Amino acid sequence: MFLARSMDVEIIFLGTGNAMPTAKRAHTAILLKAGAEKILVDCGEGTQRQLRIAEENPCKLTRILITHLHVDHTLGLPGLLKTLEMSEYQKTLQIYGPRGIKRHIEMLAAIYGQFRIKHEVYEILGGKIEEKEFTIEALPMQHTTHTLAYSFTIKDKRRIDKQKLAKLKISPSPLLAKLQHGKAITIEGVKLDPKKLTYLEKGKKITFILDTLPNKNAVKIAKDADLVICEAAFSSKDQALAASHQHLTSTQAATIAKQAKATRLLLTHISQRYEHDLSKIEKEARMLFKNTSVVQDFQKITI
User: Fold this and answer.
1) Rounded to whole angstroms, how far apart are CA atoms 93 and 231?
2) Which residues form the catalytic set?
């Protein structure tokens, strides 16, 4: 799919809570919007209502990326899929997830009835989904069940410098596409050098790491990311508790971002035990990785 403005990526946090939702935090669900792509990362309980509150049309969804099959990340699926059915969803919804996702969808259909929308379910162990304008990468994490982290990366794009072209008084031409692909061309007797008339627009990388212990793949998939969205279920003071539940602390999340040389870190999937003092989680992470914030439900970030 073509991304008309490759630098425009919007992230909407529909749910930022841990296993038990609170009055302020719903179960995990994150919407990524980039051009025609509307990608939902996880689908916790109540996600379709969160979409409505955020004034986002669920019928525009193109893909769902499931990190793992725990209920706080998937309980919203049957309701959302039924709503799409009743709304006469016109696209083909692509659902990706770890080992077991196909059986999971089949069991939901057995309980709630077939989801009469076009959909494709992909069970992946890792690897890349290559599209013309972007890639989606997945790597396995270390949790109590099969779990994936994802990165969405808009590819670098060579663009024509329109101001320089205007100075040469060159009329629009289909040949300019060759210039954009790095080939020298001649138009109206003027030879155009792509090195002088084009520039490389750097792409963007957003990484999603949820429910895991620290592991090498977490750093690998977040490498050089512009934005890392990472769980920080526990304070660093509760590291033993985090380890027993196979989750990350705020400090461990910051360590991943620092080792990956990421630009920005957003912390989500916060345990209800810290709801009264979220500044603790944020301060702990900032001691290692300064550009860190704890996110809230319905918060929007533009990259």
Assistant:
1) 26
2) 72
CA 113/CA 79 separation, integer angstroms: 11
Joined tokens for residue 72: 């706080």
- From CA 292, how far away is CA 37, in angstroms rounded? 26
Task: Provide the residue type at 287 as one letter.
Answer: M
* One-letter identity of residue 10: E
Partners of 37 in the β-ladder: 34
Q: What gap in Å lies between CA 164 and CA 242, rounded to an integer?
A: 56
User: Mean pLDDT for each 10-residue chunk of the chain (303 residues)?
Assistant: 58 96 96 97 98 98 98 98 97 98 97 96 96 96 98 89 74 74 77 77 95 98 98 96 97 98 98 91 97 98 95
Q: DSSP readout, 95-114?
A: EEESTTHHHHHHHHHHHH--
Amino acid at 64: I
Per DSSP bridges, beta strands 93-97 and 292-294 are unpaired
**pLDDT score of 5:** 46
SS3 178: helix
Cα of 191 vs its chain's centroid, Å: 42
> If you ran DSSP here, which 8-state letter would residue 26 be given?
P
Among the listed residues 181, 171, 293, 166, the one whose alpha carbon sits nearest the alpha carbon of residue 232: 293
Contact status, residue 193 vs residue 184, Cβ threshold 8 Å:
yes
Q: Which residues of 256-294 are buried (b: 16+ CB within 10 A; e: fewer)?
A: bbbbbebebbbbbbbbeebeeebeebbebbbebbeebeb
What is the rounded distance in angstroms from the CA atom of residue 257 to the CA atom of residue 144? Answer: 22
Give me the domains of the chain, ranges plus CATH numbers.
Answer: 10-156+202-302 (3.60.15.10), 158-200 (no CATH)
Q: Is the Cβ–Cβ distance between 98 and 217 less than 8 Å?
A: no
Q: Which two tokens stand for residue 107?
A: 């069991």
Q: Compute CA distances 70 → 19, 146, 192, 263, whole Å.
A: 9, 10, 56, 30
